[in-house]
Specification:
By secondary structure, this protein is mainly α. It folds into two domains: 11-151, no CATH class; 162-334, no CATH class. It is built from ten helices and no strands. Mean pLDDT is 87; it is low at 1-8.
Amino acid sequence: MHEMSNASPFPKGLPAYSAFVAGSVVFLIAIGALVTSHDAGMSVPDWPTSYGYNMFTFPIEKWVGPIRYEHVHRLVASGVGLLTVILAGWIWLKESRPRVRQAAVFAVGLVVLQGVVGGIRVVKAQQDYGIVHGTLAQLFLVTTGFLALVYTRNWIDVPQNGARLPRGWEQGIAFVTVLIFCQLVLGAVMRHQHAGLSIPDFPTVYGHYLPQVTKADLAHINAARVAAGGTRTSLLQIYLQVAHRAMALVIFSGIVACLLAVLRCRQSPPRLRLLCGVWTILVCIQVALGMTVIWTQKNTLVTTAHVVTGALLLLVGSHLTALVIRWRRAEAGR
């Protein structure tokens, strides 16, 4: 079954452009991660201006220190917004599939909302808006990733060789993808509450494999942190990081289980095995980066790579979810 077998071929350039837009969102997430890693989120205290200048005429000689990261983030975000509007307009002019057109409009709505929330975060100077801003970025990536996916042969050429996965495993893949999204939200909460190093050791938690930090322990921990020139932490921040570690283990196990299920299913197409293999490689890299973030005391490049790899995990998971559901429906309709 081919959803567009009776439709015109894809407009020349649209598949490549949609993939480029999705890639630009990954780049924007990387720049945003650098802003947070360098604690540069409020280095430009006004919005939509930059120190009173029009954002696009802010003198380059003033791009110094943390200001550089925040201002470049604003410029890249504006560029990505423009690219998204162009993509949506192109799709509405050339696309006949209602869901694709709706997804294009949704992408524009998301990028506008993300920009507004980012601006409010600056004006209000409140960290909670930064968490919402980061969450919207992940939803925006999934949406633009979907717009790129529907212009690939993976989407158009539905396999004809029977079952794609053992029954029920499309729900398993979707569940793991949702867990990844929740993990990214939890990571955003940790980053914006500066809880990333509330636990300075790994794989232990203040020397224990099972977390057992009490209020009395917390007083000694904070005294030692302040003496070392660090900031105080809280039990909430410590257990947020414990939850983040536990969720990482569940996600890792789930992705490996998905890969093994695909490999055991003789009728699963090679492209599905390839995507699951990429997913597994990414989660292994992500786990290694997470440990390295702690061991390097939040090295900015390692932390940024950790954020970007998490976004790529969500992107691959959303692609797998969409493809398997589509293929299963096509199979049921034959």
